[in-house]
UniProtKB/TrEMBL annotation:
Any one Gene Ontology cellular component term annotated for this protein: cytosol
Top EC group: transferase
Species, as recorded: Actinokineospora spheciospongiae
HAMAP family: GlnE
Name of this protein: Bifunctional glutamine synthetase adenylyltransferase/adenylyl-removing enzyme
Role played: Involved in the regulation of glutamine synthetase GlnA, a key enzyme in the process to assimilate ammonia. When cellular nitrogen levels are high, the C-terminal adenylyl transferase (AT) inactivates GlnA by covalent transfer of an adenylyl group from ATP to specific tyrosine residue of GlnA, thus reducing its activity. Conversely, when nitrogen levels are low, the N-terminal adenylyl removase (AR) activates GlnA by removing the adenylyl group by phosphorolysis, increasing its activity.
Region (Adenylyl removase) residue spans: 1-494
Gene: glnE
Segments forming domain Glutamate-ammonia ligase adenylyltransferase repeated: 180-318, 595-830
Region described as Adenylyl transferase: 502-1002
Sequence ranges assigned to domain PII-uridylyltransferase/Glutamine-synthetase adenylyltransferase in this UniProt record: 347-490, 871-998
Catalysis: reaction(s): [glutamine synthetase]-O(4)-(5'-adenylyl)-L-tyrosine + phosphate = [glutamine synthetase]-L-tyrosine + ADP; [glutamine synthetase]-L-tyrosine + ATP = [glutamine synthetase]-O(4)-(5'-adenylyl)-L-tyrosine + diphosphate
CDD domains: NT_GlnE_GlnD_like
MF terms (GO), sorted A to Z: [glutamate-ammonia-ligase] adenylyltransferase activity; [glutamine synthetase]-adenylyl-L-tyrosine phosphorylase activity; ATP binding; ligase activity; magnesium ion binding
EC number(s) reported in the record: 2.7.7.89, 2.7.7.42
Length: 1002
């Protein structure tokens, strides 16, 4: 009698939701009036853990109905045998087609108990089923043929597939069962396919009279694609190529028969990867294959040959084939447009996917398996020319080798490998469900399908989300990650650059390497070789990455004005950043970075020193927007915040220097690469200087106030000269004046002493020796020049300018503007000087004559000895001083009358002069062009030489460097140094003619 003490429970407790579930359980003897029969409750628990409990129960019922006599035995085994219970429940809930097999052949359930058939016994097992015997080099001959052989092979293959699926899924139901990795399952599927092809070949020989070796031709079967790579799916075409010798007619008949038998019994066999595809001969000789590959093969065919592996037939002929085609595969990247062709092939594959399925296609869609495979294969073919460790057929193995060799970042390789395994596992489960070839992920609203797939993959609910929701989120995350990494690796500009270096030049002897370097433009090939050896010596990952980078870098540096200096700079930077973990990774993964770095190092002596001390800017080279679009206000705020965090004054100023260094390098890089125009460069440099002054003044003021018991004065810094005009260059000093105002209750004398200490400390701290470009704060434009006090009160300035000011001081004040310190005090200073720099009624004739006299004296006395007045950017004819003095004279004479002239900007002032009718548009254009050109050239000289200079070189590498530094839009559109020099002289000569007329004529 049933145990009435047991509570009655519903079958839904075990995930069984069909109305007939309890009836099926009763019929199977697993359920009674009080619920699950105790001794069989573990069977129901196993069913509940299967991917689809209802499907598993229906399958179990079909097995019972197909052979009711053995059901009691099976039921008893299921109650006690954990291995059988877990494997059977997993298969029945994971594959309706394998459930059909068990229903059709009930005794097959016994395969799910015991150790099963090991992979190395697959071939023997299938050959035995078709009665194959013999040890001929061409393989055994089957005793069975025709439909009998097909039937025997079909059921034997399905039986082994059943065992494999049970191993693959069993751990989902019984966690104690071993969990097989994707690699193990794919490898065993490949072994099973290989065994099936060998058995099918044995049948084909039997059907074509191959009873003895004398009656047979030589024939070998080459596996391609996933089977060749030992990474086959549950349901997939098996791609093959046939090679034969002797009687090709017989070999072709046998190959055709083998394909027919294997297709009818096991899986589709596809030979369309052979030369000329479906229109080509099914079987060719080895020489025929080689002749085709050498003359006619397209890029994708070499990509396909990456996975070629002989698996059946004449083993010696198979090895001959793979050995012969390997050199062709590993030099394919030497072909013209190789990388472009592979990239185009991937796009064509993706274009054939219907747009509505693009995000769901596991194999061909965006973020799918092909994204990974194409990226990996392209990297293999380009870098595997010289690195034999990359010559792996399996995708996961190749990824590991690429990571070990430094061609792919470890993290990127790990993410790609994990995502590849994840997608392949999904693919396996989807195909196993009905043993159909599919790669389509369920739609977002297919909740039941998503739930089944999640359970079949071992994904459960998490954090309130259902299995389906967790799976969908994980799938999207993986797809997005794959696509991102695919685009990063597959479209890496470095790949195309590496592929353009011929294979034979990647393996040069020392003597040949010297000749190659000389041809690239290196003046000291032996010195360059020493740098290369220093960078690539050893077996470290760093050396491996450098080995991959240098062939490209050498070519890139060869196109710069100074290849030798660039390579030396690269070595210094690499050695200095050896401990920086991301440095080489950025160069390898961001192709634009290495290309742009080569331009910078081969052109500028200023950039390498800054890179060593501000390496983080290298990351910005990947994205021009990051390099250029930084708000000056944001820069200033960052600098102030960084300085404010330091209590010790020395550390505060060091922080200001550090951020200034970063910004200086960022601007220099953007300038040299042509991403910023000259006005943006000058404005950015000026804003950085202002931010440094602001932050340093605040830090010193705070420190001094702590010592003095409070802030004794308000201080403002007035920018003068190029700083005031926001027109600083790389080597410009900061011309300033300090103005102060006593705090409430403080005497002017105490305020002046306090402000003097602050101003002096700012100048001393910023101007102290350092490895960075100088930070000189120049106060020589103050009243009384070097003899006057560094700081004055506002009223003191007012009194001085009212009584003692000379015309040159009014001229200097034209560019005065507040740049740091107390805003209100700065504003009031500007209001005070406006009548002085824009005098009512203009300048007196004597003042005009005085300015002209001073200008003439500057022209004759200030030009350095030996300087060429036609190419001196500052004091030369038509140079910066010519243009600026001309505008400033107009401002002094007409600024009171025309408010638009009241600007510190040279460009704005020239435009205002045209509007006021003081000069013609043509004259303004001549002056503007010359000023912009001289400013750009002056900046370029500093970048190229690494130190400030106003003299344009007239020959040699420095002149070529200046022309290169001016960027792709070189003024006049000229890249020839001599032609550019003529253009510079012509432009400044025209401007000087305008200056002679406007400045000296009334």
């Amino acid at each position: 009698m049933p145990d009435r003490s047991r509570p009655i429970s519903s079958a839904a407790r075990f995930g069984l939701t069909e109305p007939r579930a309890e009836a099926e359980l009763r019929a199977a003897g697993l359920w009674d009036d009080h619920g699950p029969v105790p001794e069989h409750e573990l069977v129901l628990t196993a069913l509940s853990r299967s991917p689809d409990p209802d499907l598993a129960l229906r399958g179990l019922a079909r097995v019972r109905e197909a052979d009711p006599d053995t059901w009691p035995e099976l039921r008893a085994e299921l109650g006690t045998n954990r291995r059988l219970r877990g494997r059977l429940a997993a298969v029945l809930g994971g594959s309706s087609t394998l459930a059909d097999l068990l229903a059709a052949r009930p005794a097959e359930w016994r395969r799910l108990d015991g150790a099963g058939t090991p992979a190395d016994r697959y071939t023997a097992a299938l050959l035995t089923e078709v009665g194959a015997t013999g040890d001929s080099p061409q393989g055994p001959v089957a005793a069975k043929r025709g439909p009998e052989a097909v039937k025997a092979l079909k059921f034997a293959y399905r039986g082994l597939l059943l065992e494999l699926a049970a191993d693959d899924l069993g751990h989902l139901v019984e966690p104690e069962l071993p969990e097989f990795t994707y690699e193990e399952v794919a490898s065993r599927l490949s072994d099973l396919a290989e065994a099936a092809l060998r058995a099918a070949l044995a049948v084909a020989w039997a059907e074509n009279g191959g009873a003895t070796a004398q009656e047979r031709a030589r024939l070998t079967v080459i596996a391609m694609g996933k089977c060749g790579g030992h990474e086959l799916n549950y349901v997939s075409d098996v791609d093959v190529i046939f090679t034969g010798e002797d009687d090709l007619g017989l070999a072709t008949r046998v190959a055709s028969a083998m394909m027919r038998v294997a297709t009818e019994a096991c899986f589709d066999v596809d030979a369309n990867l052979r030369p000329e595809g479906r229109n080509g001969a099914l079987v060719r000789t080895l020489d025929g294959h080689l002749a085709y590959y050498k003359r006619w093969a397209r890029t994708w065919e070499f990509q396909a040959l990456l996975k070629a592996r002989d698996i059946a037939g004449d083993a010696e002929l198979g090895r001959g084939y793979t050995d012969a085609v390997a050199p062709l595969v590993w030099t394919a990247a030497d072909r013209d447009n190789f990388v472009v062709d592979v990239q185009a092939m991937r796009r064509r594959v993706e274009d054939h996917v219907p747009s509505e399925l693009l995000e769901r296609e596991l194999k061909l869609g965006r973020g799918g398996l092909r994204d990974i495979e194409f990226a990996v294969q392209l990297l293999q073919l380009v870098h595997g020319r010289t690195d034999e460790t990359l010559r792996r057929a399996a995708t996961v193995d190749a990824l590991a080798a690429l990571a070990a060799g430094g061609y792919v970042g470890r993290t990127d390789a790990l993410e790609l490998a994990e995502s590849y395994r994840f997608l392949r596992t999904l693919e396996h489960r989807l195909q196993l469900q009905r043993l159909r070839r599919t790669h389509l992920f369920p739609a977002d609203d297919a909740t039941d399908d998503l739930r089944w797939l999640a359970r079949a993959t071992g994904i459960g609910p998490d954090g309130g989300r259902s299995e389906a929701q967790v799976l969908l989120a994980e799938f999207r995350r993986r797809a997005n990650r794959i696509r991102r990494l695919h685009e990063k690796l597959f479209y890496r500009p470095l790949l195309e650059a590496v592929s353009r270096v011929p294979t034979d030049q990647l393996r040069l002897t020392a003597k040949a390497a010297e000749a190659r370097l000389a041809a690239l433009g290196y003046s000291s090939p032996q010195g360059a070789l020493q740098h290369i050896q220093a960078l690539t010596s050893g077996v470290s990952r760093r050396a491996a990455i450098q080995t991959a980078l240098l062939p490209v870098l050498l070519d890139l540096l060869g196109a710069t004005p100074d290849p030798d200096g660039g390579l030396l700079a690269y070595r210094k930077v690499s050695e200095a950043l050896a401990a920086t973990p991301w440095y080489l990774r950025v160069l390898r993964d961001e192709g634009a970075v290495v290309e742009r770095l080569a331009v910078l190092l081969g052109t500028s002596k200023l950039v390498p020193d800054l890179v060593v001390r501000a390496p983080e800017v290298l990351r910005l080279l990947a994205d021009p927007k990051e390099l250029t679009l930084r708000d000056p206000a944001e820069v200033a705020a960052s600098l102030r915040n960084a300085v404010r965090r330091h209590g010790y004054l020395g550390n505060a100023v060091t922080a200001a220097r550090s951020l200034r260094r970063h910004e200086l390098l960022r601007v220099a890089c953007a300038d040299l690469l042509g991403f910023m125009d000259v006005l943006a460069v000058c404005s950015a440099l000026s804003s950085v200087w202002c931010a440094v002054l602001e932050a340093s003044l605040a830090a010193v003021d705070r420190s001094e106030a702590a010592s003095a018991g409070g802030h004794l004065a308000r201080i403002a810094v007035i920018g003068m000269g190029r700083l005031g005009g926001s027109e600083l260059g790389y080597g410009s000093d900061a011309d300033v004046m300090f103005v102060c105002e006593a705090a409430d209750g403080v005497s002017d004398s105490d305020a002046l002493k306090y402000a003097g200490r602050v101003a002096t400390a700012v100048r001393r701290l910023l101007g102290s020796p350092s490895q960075d470009p100088p930070l000189q704060v120049d106060v020589d434009l103050r009243p009384e020049g070097r003899q006057g006090p560094i700081v004055r009160t506002l009223e003191s300035y007012r009194a001085y300018y009212r009584q003692w000011s000379e015309v040159w001081e009014s001229q200097a004040l034209l560019r005065a503007r507040p740049v740091a310190g107390d805003d209100d005090l700065g504003r009031r200073f500007v209001e005070m000087i406006d009548p002085i720099r824009y005098p009512e009624g203009g300048l007196a004739d004597k003042d005009v004559r005085e300015i002209r006299r001073i200008k003439a004296r500057v022209d004759t006395e200030r030009l350095p000895r030996g300087a060429d007045p036609t190419t001196h950017t500052k004091l030369g004819r038509g140079g910066l001083a010519d243009v600026e003095w001309t505008l400033q004279l107009l401002q002094l004479r007409h600024g009171h009358e025309h408010p638009a002239l009241r600007t510190t900007s040279t460009m704005d002032g020239l435009a205002a002069a045209v509007e006021a009718g003081l000069i013609t548009a043509q004259e303004s254009a001549e002056l503007t062009q010359s000023w912009l050109l001289a400013t750009r050239v002056r900046n370029a000289i500093t970048l190229v030489r690494g130190k400030p200079s106003d003299q344009l070189p007239t020959q040699g590498r420095e002149l070529a460097g200046v022309v290169t530094a001016l960027g792709p839009d070189t003024p006049g559109g000229m890249s020839d140094p001599g032609e550019f020099l003529d253009f510079y002289r012509r432009t400044t000569r025209r401007a000087h003619a305008v200056v002679e007329h406007v400045f000296y004529d009334d």
